[in-house]
């Protein structure tokens, strides 16, 4: 049985996980289930991220950029994207 996104095997596994989550909510309650899911997520994070310090540094730098970094001009970026899109459409129409 293949367990890839979009396959019946994946659907069965996901269905079982969600049924288990629903059973937990009914048996122990919503908030306890939420705490359990949060603890699982934290454990998964600590188990799966190899270099935690660089992960936190990279995340912090993405959220709070350096002082010398200029903010993005949204109008200018949208104009660039529209120009690139128009150029791509023209090239496709020529072919």
Give a verbal description of the structure:
The chain has 95 residues and is an all-alpha fold. The chain has one domain (8-94). It contains four helices and no strands. The longest helix is centred in the N-terminal third of the chain and has 21 residues, at 8-28. It is extended and about 60 Å long. The chain starts with 7 loop residues before the first helix and ends with a helix.
Question: Can you describe this structure in just a few lines?
Answer:
This protein has 95 residues and is mainly alpha-helical. It has one domain (8-94).
Measured by DSSP, the beta-strand proportion falls in: under 5%
Write down the Rg. 23 Å
Shape field: extended
The whole-number mean of residue pLDDT values reads 86
Terminal residue distance:
43 Å
Oligomer state equals: single chain
Number of domains: 1
Order of helices and strands: HHHH
The class by helix and strand makeup works out as mainly alpha
Major β-sheet annotation:
none
Number of strands: 0
- Could you name the ranges where pLDDT drops below 50 across 5 or more consecutive residues? none
Features:
4 helices; mainly alpha; single chain; 95 residues
Topology:
Blueprint: H1 8-28, H2 30-48, H3 52-63, H4 74-94
């Amino acid at each position: 049985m293949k367990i890839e996104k979009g396959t019946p095997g994946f659907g069965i596994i996901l269905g079982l996980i969600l049924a288990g989550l629903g059973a937990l909510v009914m048996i122990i309650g919503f908030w306890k289930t939420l705490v359990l899911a949060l603890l699982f997520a934290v454990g998964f994070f600590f188990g799966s991220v190899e270099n935690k310090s660089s992960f936190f540094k990279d995340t912090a730098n993405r959220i709070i950029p350096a002082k010398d970094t200029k903010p993005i001009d949204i109008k200018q970026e949208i104009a660039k994207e529209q120009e690139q899109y128009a150029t791509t459409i023209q090239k496709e129409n020529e072919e």
